[in-house]
Amino acid sequence: MRGFRTDLAMESIGDNNGHLDGVLVDRQQMGEISRTRIVIEDHHAAQVLSRPVGEYITLSCENLSRCDTNNRKRLVQLVAQAVRAMLPKDGQVLVVGLGNRNVTADALGTRVVERLLVTRHLREALADELVGKLRGVSAIAPGVLGVTGIETAELCRGLIEHVKPDAVIAIDALAAYESARICTTVQITDTGIEPGSGVGNHRLGLNRDTLGVKVIAVGVPMVVYASTIARDAVTNLMEDYGLMQDTTSPAAELLLKKVSESYLGEMVVTPREIDEMVLSVADLLSEGLNRALQSKLDAETLHTFLHG
Amino acid sequence: MRGFRTDLAMESIGDNNGHLDGVLVDRQQMGEISRTRIVIEDHHAAQVLSRPVGEYITLSCENLSRCDTNNRKRLVQLVAQAVRAMLPKDGQVLVVGLGNRNVTADALGTRVVERLLVTRHLREALADELVGKLRGVSAIAPGVLGVTGIETAELCRGLIEHVKPDAVIAIDALAAYESARICTTVQITDTGIEPGSGVGNHRLGLNRDTLGVKVIAVGVPMVVYASTIARDAVTNLMEDYGLMQDTTSPAAELLLKKVSESYLGEMVVTPREIDEMVLSVADLLSEGLNRALQSKLDAETLHTFLHG
Amino acid sequence: MRGFRTDLAMESIGDNNGHLDGVLVDRQQMGEISRTRIVIEDHHAAQVLSRPVGEYITLSCENLSRCDTNNRKRLVQLVAQAVRAMLPKDGQVLVVGLGNRNVTADALGTRVVERLLVTRHLREALADELVGKLRGVSAIAPGVLGVTGIETAELCRGLIEHVKPDAVIAIDALAAYESARICTTVQITDTGIEPGSGVGNHRLGLNRDTLGVKVIAVGVPMVVYASTIARDAVTNLMEDYGLMQDTTSPAAELLLKKVSESYLGEMVVTPREIDEMVLSVADLLSEGLNRALQSKLDAETLHTFLHG
Amino acid sequence: MRGFRTDLAMESIGDNNGHLDGVLVDRQQMGEISRTRIVIEDHHAAQVLSRPVGEYITLSCENLSRCDTNNRKRLVQLVAQAVRAMLPKDGQVLVVGLGNRNVTADALGTRVVERLLVTRHLREALADELVGKLRGVSAIAPGVLGVTGIETAELCRGLIEHVKPDAVIAIDALAAYESARICTTVQITDTGIEPGSGVGNHRLGLNRDTLGVKVIAVGVPMVVYASTIARDAVTNLMEDYGLMQDTTSPAAELLLKKVSESYLGEMVVTPREIDEMVLSVADLLSEGLNRALQSKLDAETLHTFLHG
């Protein structure tokens, strides 16, 4: 455990894969896509990993935004499957797109929400047989605290009291520890959003405790903090040179702290093509979510609702 | 009264200027800017004009988006003055940007909200003397029913129960009857937003009845409906030629109805430069609103909060 | 021939369908899509129709931006087929996206260019067998005269002298006479772009005379001028009432002129959803063009070049 | 000289400030703004610094995008002054916005071009006295090689042969060595754009050799490469610990190379707020350029041309 900032359960577990009491890890490789399921079973394990008890599904492939048509189809299915398994079988869902639409690396939540099939307001107008097939979906991308003056959790609470959804899905851009995770990994969890997480550093969490309903969180790493990169380069060097026996000693910690602080926490590392990547990943996730949410509609009917 | 669709009180009044019982009309010309104040005093007048009892300030000049620096300064002041006079002296304000950010002519509300000084979340962190000067402002541009699945009025109600503002300001793009009104007129009213108004045709109104607090509405016409133009051309012709004695006769009405319906209600008329105009008008309105909302801050402090 | 402004050959021909000497008209209906091929064969016919000698393919369906998957596939094929038939069998192609990217209704050309597979610079790096299959394509969306200070035709001439393409494809947003044409019609012609055409009113034409190579123009109507709507409403009325025996008489012309001029030429009529429509039509056209340009690549290889 | 990638002459010089033969360095502090003028006088110095002979003006302040109104005014003046001094006194100018408009950190050139007063096409229509005051300015943001298939230098050459400007101004987003330079420094040079420079890594240079006219380059650092940050952290550590006597020894070089390569060259470091910063810096630069280019117009006339 290196203590670097990451929003991925998979990175918190690191090399301890499965050796931790109270943590189940199950990995499948499907061609170029790997699917890892982590279950944190008890509060002891939750404490060690600084992550809530619950299920974390991680889907990885070399490049989410530029994979070939077969891998893309399979990824859409795997996203749909994982979300569907966490959703209540029936009942309304509110989708919340987190992050700031005017900050490229933080706009993923907003872009996904723009692509969703929203149905809550349609149901009165539809024929009875279709209403039975159509789940009520509402969606909002409210903007971040600095733009609204209102905490996202607070804003959602007010909304939930009126809309009364049976579950919430929150979409967010994440920060990772390894730059190789950017745009290559989807994390889907039933534990909601933790305080301090995401590119935008949410002050409050969004979960059953704060919102009163189940919150499924779907996220993709879009940045690594610059301080993480500097710290990481230095740690590797110290290990290579046996410079300090133990990189977790106070002296080493002090040095690493110094290195991190010399890079403003606000500096983030992203691929140059992040603008295009965000749109492409938003297409992929929204396709998966639309299928998970409207599992009783066939593909053509779903298409007609969305584009016809 | 021609019965055409318009969101401007000034156009409803038409040529009856001041001759209507229960309606006060007061017009001032200041250089190239004219300011008209209409007060609908009682329910009879409200019924005749199909508009709620209340005050309507209309500011007009040849082109809001391309006026010279002096006219622009004066317009900002006049907007600030009119809004300030309608606001409670102290207390929090929630600004709601109505409309669809992805439809150019309907994006005015969203663009204004993006440019506001939002302070509600800052107040804990500020020195005491500044807190006394700073009004708590929160802001949201929630998106339209088709995008969220939630009525804007419903969404605002949930929000207001948590944020508890003392007043709401709603910003919206309007439809006018005359194309010459597009981007040349600002309407500021203390009656809120009426059902069926705006480019996006709000299903429910936003006013004291639906939201439980005072609602000040600020709007600028951005479109004329195509059917209005066709109807208008034909009416003029019929009058010129004395074609039908009375253009409000059933026969004439039938003809006009036919003309209107041959143009899809969805077709709107806008200037080709609407994209640029919306941004420019959003700058102007947000400057006026920021001044009205933070009337105890001097210009440089306001600038520092916004840009520094 | 009513003399209204239109960029569609199909509308110029009007009800004279095939009765004009020197004009061939051939129409096919394929399910919900109709395909009309007009050939203006000689200079006399060209003069009567105020359009150059050449071939005009028009594809129509109810809504290009919201058709079902089958119609969309067929439209892509028909666009590809028509363009391919006009292109030289081999040789480089330069695609020019006309119009102003900051004016929604005029941005079609720019949006198509953004979605093209551009290959001219790749060919050195590719394996020999692939080079044989890949046509050299370059693309530019230079912006309009008011933004660059340079006539598009002038700018293209300079470029063509260096790039030396064997043909040019110019993409543009058009103005129609009937509002029902907006986003329902694609026109593909080997005559290039005429002076005064397009939403942006190009001052010079782009054709073999001005550029020295064959110019294929692909366009979709995005606006109707407001004056056209007013004029049209009045003409219909005059005809219905036998108001003037001959709507082309000087008196009638004067009246119509008066009606037209009371609506600023700058006002345009578009659907409210024009923003979304432009993106959707750009997807459709670019897909057709990519297939026409790279007819030796199979679909998966084309996809990999574009997205993988 | 550390050999890291930077586009700033100031960083190449590093701590050798003025001690290098053939290099003049002159620094002025004006309140919170510092202005450094570097002149590389001969080919020997040019070789040592890997930069062409010429003049480099660097303006720095804590944050270009969020400075107070006084500092902003002074910066606009200093940009205008530096560019004006390098421009020919009269004659046409072509401004080229380099970079990719769809990559946030690379879009600076495009955003500046959008804000320029373009006049080349107006001059026929203007009164004689105004023509004498108005310099002919044209502008283009052609897009990068991957988008057009045409090298920017090649594209400009074709254009220049037709437009025949007396000078070119090229605007570009730069890469720096220190992250503290991002959005805090403007570099203005009469040496043009070097091959391999800019966020987008131009393959060819834009200078008098390739274009045949004087090229003034204006740039602001928008990224640091992730490899630079890793390398830098490690170098500091090695120096602190005396790990290798000489950080330029082959062993040290090998180590640093390893560190750099473990971070993809494509990963870039930027502030999270880069989207907003680019627009704000584009405002500042365009204001400076408009003044430099139209030095005979007073502020109000310039404003009227731009906004009225």
Describe what you observe in this structure.
Four copies of one chain form a homotetramer. Chain A has one domain (9-307): Rossmann fold (3-Layer(aba) Sandwich). Chain A is globular, with a radius of gyration of 20 Å. The first copy, chain A, has 308 residues and is of the alpha/beta class. In chain A, α3 crosses α11 (274-293), α4 (108-114) packs across α11 (274-293) and α9 packs antiparallel against α10. The first copy, chain A, contains twelve helices and nine strands. In chain A, strands 1, 2, 3, 4, 5, 6, 7, 8 and 9 form a nine-stranded mixed sheet that branches. Chains in contact: A-B, A-C, A-D, B-C, B-D, C-D. β9 of chain A pairs antiparallel with β9 (267-271) of chain D, so a sheet runs across the interface.
Secondary-structure arrangement, i.e. CATH architecture of chain A:
3-Layer(aba) Sandwich
CATH topology-level name of chain A = Rossmann fold
Quickly count the helices of chain A: 12
The end-to-end distance of chain A, rounded to whole angstroms, is 50 Å
CATH class placement of chain A: Alpha Beta
Chains forming the largest contact: A-D, 37 and 38 residues
| Quaternary organisation | homotetramer
* Beta-strand percent range of chain A: 15-25%
Mean pLDDT of chain A: 87
Profile the largest sheet of chain A. 9 strands, mixed
Which descriptor suits the 3D outline of chain A? globular
Helix content of chain A: 25-40%
